[in-house]
Amino acid sequence: MSRSKQKKLLKLMKNCIQNNICDEFFKYNMAVIEKAIDRVCRKRNIILSKPDIEDLRQDVSFELCRNNYKRLRKYSEFKGMSLNSWIIYITGHTVWDKR
Known about the structure:
There is one protein chain. By secondary structure, this protein is mostly helical. The chain has a single domain, classed as Rna Polymerase Sigma Factor, Chain: A, CATH 1.10.1740. About 80% of the residues lie in helices and about 0% in strands. Helix 2 crosses helix 3 (about 50-75). The radius of gyration is 13 Å and the shape is globular. The N and C termini lie far apart (about 30 Å).
């Protein structure tokens, strides 16, 4: 991920955490979440319907936001992982837990 995209994503995340304005953050990351859901499901040979995929997207969004954005607050760019990678990591674990 380019440095400018990472900066934008961090800004959207901070706005989400601090001001509870998360629509743009999730809109910006929906493709990343969907690809991560697809990858996990393909690895486990799971075929999902569109409503199932939507449910998983909502589960991931909830997981990122629950407990006052605990998962998003845990992210630190200084630990060597991009925010996109962190979102993919959380998505993968959420899908594994739900399926």
